[in-house]
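BUG: 3D viewer hangs when loading the predicted structure for this chain

Environment: internal workstation, default settings.
Expected: structure renders.
Actual: progress bar stalls at 90%.

Input used:
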Amino acid sequence: MKIAHLISTFPPYRGGMGNSVACFAKELLHFNHEVTVLTPNFQQAQDETCQWQGVKVVRLKPFLIIGNAAILPGLVKRLKEFDVIHLHYPFYGALGLVVLAKILNPVKLKLAVHYHMDTKARGLKGLIFSLSNYLWLPILLRLAEAVTCASLDYVKHSFIGSYYLKHRDKFTQVSFGVDLEHFHPDADYSGINKNILFVGGLDRAHYFKGVDKLIKAFARLALKLPTARLTILGNGDLVPAYQQLALALQLSDRINFVSDVGDEALIGYYQHAALLVLPSINQNEAFGLVLLEAMACGKPVVASNLPGVRSVFKNGRQGLTVKPGDVNDLADKILYILKDDAVQLRMGEAARQLVEKRYSWRAAGAKLNEIYYRIRYVPKLKHKQQLA
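Structure tokens produced before the viewer hung:
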């Protein structure tokens, strides 16, 4: 089949949505599909086609860019080339164009929608989100032959929860995976230390990551644990504000801000941390691929008790969940793990075991392959059987 994944951001941009699509696309190549990723060219140059680890990537010139949203005038024409379109929501600017393409070619073009997360914002951006969700999202869901998600727990509590309850058969959970050979514990390192790690976007698009809450929580636990250190790995336009907060709390010498690093260096940060923290404050966080990467390296995790995120691991076994936005609870849970070496080791071992058992990109690719086959061919087979 000729399959297109339509996504608002894609590597080298660092973000969970784009990284997940990259891994989905690579796995689908094992099933002999022609896989193309369609994504905006945010440099506003001409259309650009390239290869990314064997996957064809077409970066389309946008007519208009607002944040990570983009209107792509040539998209409808491009979509005619494919058998299956897998739209990764949210992708504002493309939703109406996908609806149009499906309406113009309802039989040949099969549509799947991957619901990554709800979107929340204030001001003009929030108004755009709301209007787009009201106008296009219900139509997209009705037109789609299948809806995928990383967590049904998240979907049940999301904007589309009521639709899910009425159309459960249309939904399939396709869990994200992790490269277990790439992300692994360091056999030459004991792993016992007091180093806290955060990995994620530090731009306004990722305001919901709760980095300010983490810095304030660290200020509280730092008084009780003088050897604790915090590394914040990522970049974006909010870095100066976070650095200023660290300075105001007199923690500049104990908080290390690190710009995005290469894959090998990233693994080292995971391996040499005591734990990873994902302190997100709302349902803009739907899963957290960094949790899988840290657990694959044998590290416990502390993450907000949010739909989707809380289903990644078992509270009390591979890590701990915290009340979203609660600085005191966050500080207490981090401190609980840091002050007890036995807990840190036990949770870290359980974390690695969990990802080995549950989270595989190969399994995710196989499940997508089954979905595409079903929506592309099964209706035709049923029709032929009825005529026979």
